[in-house]
From TrEMBL:
PANTHER family, sorted: ACETATE COA-TRANSFERASE SUBUNIT ALPHA, KETOACID-COENZYME A TRANSFERASE
InterPro entries recorded: 3-oxoacid_CoA-transf_A, CoA_trans_fam_I, CoA_transf_BS, NagB/RpiA_transferase-like
Residue numbers spanned by region Disordered: 221-242
GO molecular function, one term: CoA-transferase activity
Keyword Transferase: yes
Name assigned to this protein: CoA transferase subunit A
Family: Belongs to the 3-oxoacid CoA-transferase subunit A family.
UniProt organism field: Paracoccus yeei
Keywords from the UniProt entry: Transferase
PROSITE patterns: COA_TRANSF_1
Length: 242
């Protein structure tokens, strides 16, 4: 089965439709599928529901799809640094289903594992619990959360082989792995594709069985928030130590 495609546009060909549910990997701006998001923007697919930890920032990542009004609903845990996300939600232009961060990750993982739902204590007694089934276990109240099964998963890895086995870098593993597994079809973009058999099996985070289409590309890798401090000279450092 050929998995490697020449471009993001080619990899998404025949997969996009209005009103679909897309699971998108990434954490903040770390490990986001930039190229696939850009291809969805170009395709003009609309009325999308996106399950993702957050929605990028203004004008970048999933924020581009907010600007173009292609997203109807977000399933996420964090508004983040995106002012347009906040504006659309508060004005009633965007539907938002808030999830505690761990609950969202587990909903994706559960969907990928074929588990339709699970009970958790997180959110009990808050607006998160409204309208959900409550059940007591050992004297504690839990609420039922449904697993997420997406029509399409778009994720970004560091390195993959031609069979679709993927390695992620550090924080990029947080949501990319569960997002990839919960998609009926998973398209992955990576920085490097190597021949099958080149990767150490122990280093693989996402087995190729979950990946249907794969592309290689260059990524901007923006920093969401850059925090620096002024340089301290060796002389000043020694004086402070004394």
């Amino acid at each position: 089965m050929k998995k490697v495609y020449a471009s993001a546009d080619a990899a998404l060909d025949g997969l996009l439709r209005d009103g679909m549910l897309i699971a998108a990997g990434g954490f903040g701006l770390c490990g986001i599928p930039e190229l696939l998001i850009e291809a969805i923007l170009k395709a003009g697919t609309k009325d999308l529901t996106i399950a993702s930890n957050n929605c990028g920032v203004d004008g970048f990542g999933l924020g581009k799809l907010l600007d173009s009004r292609q997203i109807r609903k977000m399933i996420s845990s964090y508004v983040g640094e995106n002012a347009e996300f906040m504006r659309q939600y508060l004005s009633g232009e965007l539907e938002l289903e808030f999830n505690p961060q761990g609950t969202l990750a587990e909903r994706m993982r559960a969907g990928g594992a074929g588990i339709p739902g699970f009970y958790t204590k997180t959110g009990v007694g808050t607006v998160i619990a409204e309208g959900k089934d409550h059940k007591d276990f050992d004297g504690e109240t839990y609420i039922l959360e449904r697993g997420i099964v997406a029509d399409l998963a778009i994720v970004k890895g560091w390195k993959a082989d031609e069979s679709g086995n993927v390695i992620f870098r550090k924080t990029a593993r947080n949501f990319n792995v569960p997002a990839a597994k919960c998609g009926r079809v998973c398209v992955c973009e990576v920085e490097e594709i190597v021949p099958t058999g080149s990767l150490d099996p122990d280093a693989i985070h996402l087995p190729g069985i979950y990946v249907h289409r794969l592309i290689q590309g260059s990524h901007e890798k923006r920093i969401e928030q850059r925090t620096t401090r002024s340089r301290v000279s060796d002389t000043t450092r020694k004086k402070e130590a004394v």
